Amino acid sequence: MNIYIRLTYRNLRANLDRTSIFFELIFPLFFIFVQGYALGGIVPPFDIGGGIIVSYPLFLAAGAVTLTVINGGTNAGTQLWFDRKNGMFEQILMGPFTRAQYILSIIFATLIIGIAGSLLVFLIALPVLGGALSLTAQGTALVALALVLGTMFFGSFAIALSVALKSSESFQIVSTFAFFVFLFTSSVFYPANRAPSLIQAVSFLNPLTYTTDMFRAGLFSSFTPVVSLEVTALVVEAVAVFIIALLAFRRIRV
Prior knowledge:
By secondary structure, the chain is mostly helical.
């Protein structure tokens, strides 16, 4: 256990520079306080399920909080590439650490950063969300599950991607494009059932849609049978991608 704590602490130190933290927080806050209010006067309120009606600023604020799971995932892949590029990966494996301990420590650090970032953005967004929140014990559990599974999926996805690509520059380009697709075909900015049929089909397979819908359902107590299906789908996707990341990681040659 002490080994995991040491490696996780090292990974947290490697990822928590002030510039990255600033932009990771500004990115979702821009959508919450600028886009949400800018479009709030022209976009009608939405029924998010269970008869719960929310305004567009509320709808977008709840979705934007989950953007931190993508940021956390990008950090996981970026750190792996920097460690390989700078020789740190080899040095760590020469010490009393195994590959399994290394990758699990990255996942742990990613979960901590992703969940902590989500909570911080959530606290800053409370002036927007506060009056409409309807948190229950079940809702709180669903919010926590959404953040954990979402961060686990995108962290594992980024690690698998960083192993597959041959350079850190390629990773930055491909991961940025992939997360761009995840973001704009999800339900972060609009209800998936109101999108054109092709975008709907992509959105209903998108793990960020599941994460966002679960997060909203937990915040506003809008539980529906669809949310239960999304929980199952996200569990399956997160576990599957995590296993793929582990198998891909074993292929790295020291």
